[in-house]
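A common beginner's mistake is to predict each chain separately and then try to dock the pieces by hand. The better habit, illustrated here, is to supply every component at once so that their relative placement is modeled jointly.
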Amino acid sequence: MSQPQDISNLSQSFSNAVAISTSPVNNFSPGSPYGQSIYPGRHTKVLKPFSTGDIKILLLENVNTTAIEIFNKQGYQVEFLKTSLPEEELIEKIKDVHAIGIRSKTNLNKRILEHAKNLIVIGCFCIGTNQVDLEYAAKKGIAVFNSPFSNSRSVAELVIAEIITLARQLGDRSIEMHTGTWNKVSSKCWEIRGKTLGIIGYGHIGSQLSVLAEAFGMNVIYYDTLMIMALGTAKQVPTLEALLRQADFVTLHVPELPETKNMISTNEFNCMKDGSYLINASRGTVIDIPALVEARKSGKIAGAALDVYPNEPAKNGVGLFSDNLNSWTTDLTQLGNIILSPHIGGSTEEAQSAIGIEVGSAVSKYINEGSSVGAVNFPEVSLRSLTLDDNDRARVLYVHKNVPGVLKTVNEIFAEHNIEKQYSESRGEIAYLMADISNVSVSQLKELYDSLQQTPFHIVTRLLY
Ligand SMILES: NC(=O)c1ccc[n+]([C@@H]2O[C@H](COP(=O)([O-])OP(=O)(O)OC[C@H]3O[C@@H](n4cnc5c(N)ncnc54)[C@H](O)[C@@H]3O)[C@@H](O)[C@H]2O)c1
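With all components supplied together, the output reads:
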């Protein structure tokens, strides 16, 4: 499959070029950990850790039961807590464990990680990884996994709900009814069938939304800096302006980047159709909200739905969404047909369950097979699973400093054996080597392990056999 192309400079012959594009990929991979693979291969060999002993895993912050089931099936010793832990308690607990699962409230900073003598992997059962010192973790040879895409469908469904809610002024009617007002109107209320949805950012969420919107009879156009194959009969347009000029509903699904900051501001509102609608469930910085307030006041746009904001409260509570947090709050909340939700786009039971499976599987696969595919701070390396026929083989997992001369030293250590497969990848100051070597007896494992550990570049060495 061809790589995505940068289309920012493409000419008007754009529509002819779509054939070379690629579809968005689904990164979800349930993995095949040893013992109880989710999708076991018939001949997959169950690898045992030589160097780690029994795996202990600490799960904090009530991570989803789907993850606990995965870890229990592996035979790990699982300690599960519903809350996060105070720093000193966490330091005590982290000393022992090989893996830890957290959500957004547990801060794994350098001070805490310094005490994590056995830790090889961190699972963030959430989208973000800001709560972890990723660089320090990598230097200690600790791989970090998260789940960036498990809630794409949930966000896409919320946006569909918002499109209909805006088109029918449903939010305003509901608020009126709550205060005793009966206001049966049809003026400026629309069906969404036959209307044009403009999707900015056709990634995991944008492309899901595209399919759902077409099922409602909408025409879908999208703008993305990459050339991406359209799903259904959606059409990619070459510029943001082209999208804004055609769309009845504009929805943003881009990452937070310097180039997406305020990507919808006064000029862009001026390009939008009169009476169109704007939806943002991506990141709070992508819309210039004072410009949105002006566009709504003037009637240029007929409504907007926002799920994300430049500043968001750190916890739930009354009175927290105020001018103290964002200076324009009062101006925004006084406008009609503005739907505001508290960053709940991805907040569903299904998304939580999918996060548990995705991160649980990635963590298990790293522990059991060494695969670091999907790690956010670590070189991504994988070798295919060993089979039952591979009975005299050992898998070497060697995290080391990224300096010259490592492979020469390591291959000298491997010299007595046969290297069946070897794959090494670096990222910044660290590198990760996976090798399957044959002609290894169990009695030779200790010598092999000790030799690798004594190399000057060694960070973490593990052997599976
Ligand atoms: N509201 C929520 O609860 C919630 C939940 C999940 C994700 N999100 C946010 O939604 C956004 C999209 O998530 P995703 O999983 O679809 O991401 P993704 O990485 O799969 O897709 C993003 C797309 O935007 C495109 N893009 C990047 N810069 C662009 C630009 N300047 N102009 C046009 N297109 C551009 C990329 O090429 C990519 O195709 C992210 O900001 C994410 O943080 C919000």
